[in-house]
Structures are given as structure tokens and as C-alpha cells.
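Sequence in, structure out. First:
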Amino acid sequence: QLQACGGGLVQAGGSLRLSCAASGRTFGNSGMGWFRQAPGKEREFVATISWSGHNTGYTNYVKGRFIISRDNAKNTLYLQMNSLKPEDTAVYYCAARLSASSSSYLNAYDYWGQGTLVTVSS
């Protein structure tokens, strides 16, 4: 089970850090990712990380502003979001896959968290 938290209301240019805590099983051997869904839009890829943390990937929309990381000892995934823009407003979901590698494909993930809302005001 995955539990995302850390969302909230922030002004444009601000920062937030999302966390995703796993319980019930360890995801230390799993590739993980963050996705988001804005109102009226489909869920889209944001960032991904391999089980070791050595491989990461980002959508071009957040590259250079967001950083994905993980702490396997704490069974927790993070997303540091800097220089936030109003278009970053969405519900953010964490996800884990049975494979150890990273992936930007939504269908590659087997476990999903419940989502946390990020609202960026202009």
C-alpha cells in the first residue's frame, strides 16, 4: 500500500516536497514513479526512479525543477518540486512496479497511492 502526502496550496515560484510511504510490503526492489492528473485531463507521467536510485527520468515539463529520490531504508519515495507553476496544479500519485527498473509508462505500474492535491496559485 502506498500513501502520498505533502500536497497543498503554494504560490507560483514556491516549493513543495511530496512523500510516498509504503506499508504492508517493501518496495526497495521496485521501480517507482510520480504521475499527476489535472482537472479534465488524463493522468500523465512526471518522474521515475529505479530501485537503486541510480536511474531517474523526468517529463520535459518538470526537468530541471523537480527531483525524484528515494530512501529504501524508510521505504519512502520523494518528489522535490521547485519553481512551481500554475500549470503544475494537479493531483499527484505515486506508483510502484514489480520490476526494478524505472519507467515512464503508466501501464507499467502495479501499485498506486491515493493521490495528494497540489495547487499552485499565480
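Second:
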Amino acid sequence: QVELVESGGGLVQAGGSLKLSCAASGRDFSNYAVGWFRQGPGKEREFVAAIKWDNGATAVADPEKGRFTISRDGAKTLVYLEMNNLQPEDTAFYFCAAKPGMFNFVEDRCGFWGQGTQVTVYS
């Protein structure tokens, strides 16, 4: 049974940083991509970043490039999202998701989801 468990969310002042973790278990993820989506108050869920498990290739949403970094620890089957210079508009529920392959890493293609972790940025 596949399980994705997020952690690391919290309350942070604008300009601060947080590092989210997604613990993946229940299958061989070597041919999968694991990534993050977020959903802010009154907004639709949006793609943030993804990483291909086997070769570490990454994709980050344009608005977050330079601030957010996605990485993985293969030995521990953990995926991290390091977020720097956080702003109030980054306030959202952050979800970990997984799908086979990196291509078309969009919400309705991801078959596995975590429960999410809340990130709140105050000014």
C-alpha cells in the first residue's frame, strides 16, 4: 500500500524558510516522479515542484524558481522541498504526490497523494 506522509509545515515570518519532507513507502518508486502541489485559501491546487526518483531530474514552477528547491534522499525514500524567502502568498496546504514518470506531472495524473501539511507565512 503506497503511503506519502508530509511533514515540516508550520508558521513562519515573511522572508523565512521552511523545509518540507515527504516520506514515501509501499512500492518501488524508481520509475516514479514525486513532487509537491499546493492549495492556498480560495485558490486552485497548483504544481510546485517534482523530482524523478531514479536520475534526480527536477522541475520547479516558474514563480518558485530561485526560491524553492526539491531534492530526494534515495536511501530513506524521502523527498524534500526547501523553501526560502517565503512570502504571505506562499501560504497554502502543501501536498506530496507521485506518478509514474516525470512527463505531464499534473494533478489529475498523480495517483498517489499525501494528506498535506499547512504552511502559513505572516508579514
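Remark: The radius of gyration is 13 Å.
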